[in-house]
Amino acid sequence: MNGREVYLPIMMLKSLLTEGNSMKKTALVALLAAVFVLATAASAFAAIAPTYVPWTAGGANAGSADTPHADYQLHTEKCAVCHSVHNAPATVPVGATGETELLLRSSAADACTYCHIDSNIGGKVVYDGVASNYRTDYASNHYGGPASCTNCHSVHSANTIEGLVESKILRDGQFANGANYFYEDAYLDDLYGAGWTEADVDADPDRDVQISVFCTKCHDNWSDAAETTISAYGYDGVGYSYVDVKHHPMKAADVIFLAQGASTTTQVAWVDANYCRSCHDAGYINQPAGTITQSFPHYTPGYAKFLQVFTDAASNTGSGTIGAPGADTGSDDGACIKCHIRGAGGQGAGLSY
Fold first, then answer.
1. Where are the chain's structural domains?
2. Rounded to 5 degrees, what angle do the CA atoms 179, 173, 236 make?
3. Mean pLDDT, range 102-108, rounded to an integer
4. b/e string for 265-274 if b means 16 or more Cβ within 10 A?
């Protein structure tokens, strides 16, 4: 109701009150009822009218950080980008099933898809912009099952790894679902020594180390030497359990290879493998400029296990063509050859050994 709509009934009411016969009193009651209905309708409409706020990089959404996931200020309007306090829909959008949750546009499990898969509102599009790539288990993705978005990312930027990977909003400490995924102690002991704290991770000057620290929270099959036995959680052929295994080490290439049971003391690797991404580099190393859809570790179509490989004989000089391992299922040899073959004579394993 505007000022004129309120003013006219008030003037009519004043007239009726001054004249005071029964007919006019009846009209007075009807008028008061009409005013009440109008006021109530206006107030009810106001209660459900607020809805989501469109995300923009500036304006009311702008804090000092260009992201809706952090830096909420007294003058910003970031919460309403994802949450509608009074007008969240009852059901999820067409194409999905179930009810919306936490006053979001969708279920909590799929809340990230609106900005980062179904649209480019968030600035970073993953899973090629196709939600089924996130919801279905492939060899080339982390899917929305055990490894959902909120298992890795802290949506509101609380308790995240700081420093060089701060913008990735990667969870610090235990995961959101209560699973017992903490930092891999052995890896951090090797990096920082006994008595390390999360502050050591935050302050690390190498972002690839920080990423590896994060990956080992789930993939705790880490080793610093090929002859070291580790206890890692994984599939043992029957089910998932902790098993004792030996594992490819994450370390710099040795000029002289010495290992238990080795038949050689010569050099066998020519490229360092200090990080998880040293091998699982699809969508990271040699990624075309501007490409954001085929991104490690979300979805790298065709690159099984996020591996890039050498695809031709030039790999024996370290200058081969980098490509996919074929389909989503195999051909891992080219990933090993990237590090384990060098020189015109095919030192190391040899392409035609």
1. 3-48, 137-219, 220-247, 251-353
2. 45
3. 87
4. eeebbbeebe
Question: Token pair for residue 205?
Answer: 């000057």
The pLDDT score that the predictor gives to residue 205 is 94
CB neighbourhood size of 196 (10 A): 16
Q: Residues 52-65: what's their mean pLDDT?
A: 82
3-state helix/strand/coil string of the chain: CCHHHHHHHHHHHHHHHHHCCHHHHHHHHHHHHHHHHHHHHHHHHHHHCCCCCCCCCCHHHCCCCCCCCCCCCCCCCCHHHHCCCCCCCCECCCCCCCECCCCCCCCHHHCCHHHHCCCCCCCCCCHHHCHHHHHCCCCCECCCCCCCHHHHECCCCCCECCHHHHHHCEECCCCCCCCCCCCCHHHHHHHHCCCCCHHHHHCCCCHHHHHHHHHCCCCCCCCCCCCCEEEEEEECCCCEEEEEEECCCCECCCCCCCCCCCCCCCCCCCCCECCHHHCCCCCCCCCCCCCCCCCCCCECCCCHHHCCEECCHHHHHCCCCEECCCCCCCCCHHHHHHHHEECCCCEECCCCC
Q: Which residue has the tokens 């993705």?
A: 141
Residue 291 has pLDDT above 50, yes or no: no
Q: Which residues have CB under 8 Å from 86's CB, separation 6+?
A: 47, 48, 49, 50
The predicted model gives 180-197 an average pLDDT of 77
* pLDDT score at 7: 47
- Measured between alpha carbons, how far apart are the two ends of the chain, in Å? 86
